[in-house]
Every structure is written in C-alpha cells, then in structure tokens.
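Case study B.
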Amino acid sequence: MKIKITINREQPSLSEINSGKNFSALLNAYNAFKIPFYKTKLFLGLSTVLTTALLSLTVYYFTVTDNYKPVIQAKTTIKYDTASIIQGVFNGIDGNEKNFKAEKKYPITHNSTRQVNIKPESNSGISDKSNVIAQDRTKLVSEKNYDVNIYAHLNGKMNGKIDYNNIIQQPHLKTNADTVNVVSFFISYISKNNKHRKFINGNAIPQYVLDDLKNMINGDKLSITEIKAVTKSGREINLNDLNYTLTGTYLNKNETGVLEDELFEK
Amino acid sequence: MNKPGIYHKTNKQITEEQGLIDAARKNPQHFEKLYNSYYEGIFRFVFKRLEKKEDAFDVTAQVFLKALQNLSKYSHKGLPFSSWLYRIAKSEVYQFLRDNNKIRVIDIEIHNLDDLTDETGYAQKEMLLQCIENILPQLNEEEMQLLEMRYFEKRPFKEVCEILNITENNAKVKMHRVIEKLKIKLNNLHQDI
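Model:
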C-alpha cells in the first residue's frame, strides 16, 4: 500500500462536514440492504442442522433399523460342561432351538504358566484344529461356551462373529470376540418352479439366488448348509459338523420387496 | 455524583448512550441521535487517512450503514460506543483502499508533535518530521496506526487499544519499540549533520 504523508493539511470546516450528513439516506440504504431471512446466519444454521438431522435419520433408517436387518441370521452356542462334554444349540431366526450333544471329551492339561490347551481327540463335533488357549482352568469350567453368529446380508455377503464369552482370551486381539469369515457353504433353494443346489467357494450368495429370494412365494424353502468359516485369528470353524443348517420356509412377503425376519417363520 | 468516565464521557453519558443503542436496535429511527453525535468524529478519522474529501464522505456513510446493520452484535463492555464505530471506520478505510487501490494518507499536524518531541528528547520539530517521514514506510501497519492515533491524533491509550483490538500492555510495548526506532533514526540524522 502506498503511503502519502501530508503536513498541516487543510481540514474541512464543520459546515462542510455537516453537509455530508444525511440520516434519511442512511435509513433508506439500511432498508434496501436489509438481509433477507434466507441469507441470515440463523437461517443458515437452522438449515444446516435440519440437513444434518435428515441425513442422520436416512443413514439410521438404512443401517440400524429393521429395514436393513440381515435376511438370514443364525446363532450357535457351543458349551463345555464341567466334564468337558460338548453341547450345541442352534438358534434360527425363528427362535427355534436345535440341541445336540457330542459325546467326545476334551482332555485338559496344564502347563507351567497355568494356560490350558484343549485339543479334540478326534473329530467330535467341532473341527477345532487350532489350539484353544484359555487363561486358566477355573474360567474354562465355570464359564464354558462360545457363540458363533453368521449373517447373510441383503447384498449376499455372509460374515459373522464369534464370542468366546470370557473363556478364551485372545491375547493378540485383547478381546473375547473375533470376526468370522465364511470360506465356503452349500446353498439350496427350492421353489415351485425353480430349484438350485450349489456349493459356493467364498462368502457371497450368488445374485441369481438373491433374485429368487426377492420373488419368494409361500412354501419356498431355503437352506444354507456345511458352512466352513475361519476366524480372523485363524481358528477354523466347520459348522457342518455341528449339524448346522440355516433353513426356512417362506410364509410372508413384504409389500415393499424387502426381505425381513419373517422369511424364516414357520 | 457520577465519576468521570473514560474518553471524556461520564458514566451517566455512557449509560444514556446505551439506552439510545437499545432503542435503535428496536427501531433504526432512534439511531439518528448517535449518528449526529459521532458523524463529525468519524468523518475526521476517515478523512485523515484518505486523499479526497468525496471518498471520505462515501466511507463515512458506509461506516454508519455497517454500524446500523450490525447494531444487534454490539455488546456494551463499559467502553463508549465511539470505539466500536472507530473500529468499523478503520476496517472500512482499509477495505476502501484495497478495493480502489488508493493511496493511504497520514496527516500530521506540526502542533500535535509536542508529545513526540518530549518522548524522543528532540525539540527540533523539522528534524523530527523528517525522521518520521523516513521511518513511517518502514513500520508495519499496526505500528503506523499506533503512532498515528497516539501522537498525531492524540487519542488516549485505552481508546487506541480498543480501536486496534489489542491489550494496553501490548500497545505500550509496540509503541516503545517505535519510539526506539525513531530515536536511532534521529541519532543517525544528527550525526550526519
């Protein structure tokens, strides 16, 4: 910015200054430049809040509410009793439980660090090739189960989680839970006009099956069997050995075409 | 009895002024009294920084328009309303200079240099003036404004700080530095002679 220095510059007189006064012109300018409500900060603030709320609701609607529930959900609980006998429960989404009992026992051995290694003697129900490491035996016998949840989502991807329910610490994960990645499974779908049975190597239900699901009518049956999965930490889970079957018969069809829980109602 | 207030205003006057501001917030028509009281002061403030009188009238009008538009944001902190207006005037002047690529004027009146001669210890005003002319372009904008408001316009320190939005201590430190620069320059000039 250029600077100019003036010395004893002549100042305008008071009358000259007052000649520039014009309050009515100021008021006119004020009224002309009055900020309309839609340009005020209040309006901008309100519209921002409302837009954010609307977006949050939309996200909530599609992710958290029932409208985006997994179409297929199953839960397996594997229990160890004090005598180390394996028991299993399969919960379908319909709430029906299938109990089973494996007769084989797991030998429990201690090592010097009070860690317990459990190895199945044979294929006795759980394909548990990796060692199950517990922190101590007390925990193993008193709180003795873990849950596997497998979900099939609307986009066809299947995944799940395993919850060790405080028995087995995962030292590297520092948590009692782990993610489960589906490796392979059999899917069969029987409808009045159509019938599939296919081995899927991977975790995705094929699109044509999904398309069939969308057009399900009463009496159609779907089952997913022989699910093989592996946890993030490398533990293999073979749900087929547990007689694990996701199956259901369609009874109701949602008018909007979104598959919901009643898919597996009986 | 009211104690004398800051910037030559009594506390009663400041309270009355606050009443006028509150009234003007509700109805802009009530702004007229404030407009009439401060028009001359603001005009002179603007005029001292611009070359042309017409420009000063335009900028002054803009200052009062901005003040009226933003009256709801003004909060009374015990300082006179004028400080707020001067702050708007300062920013409007710089906005005008930037937008129109105009020359910034610094208006010095010889008779106002008494304080500066006392501070620097040089009684010869001509030499001091020559020195100021040399040193002003070397100062940053804030230092220049401090010197201008404090010594050329003879404003109280507190008002200068309020207009520049800096603390009094900060202003004093900066002022001290400027005076030191002036003294060095004066010494050099003196040696040259």
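Chain A has five helices and 14 strands. The remaining cases will be described in the next quarterly update.
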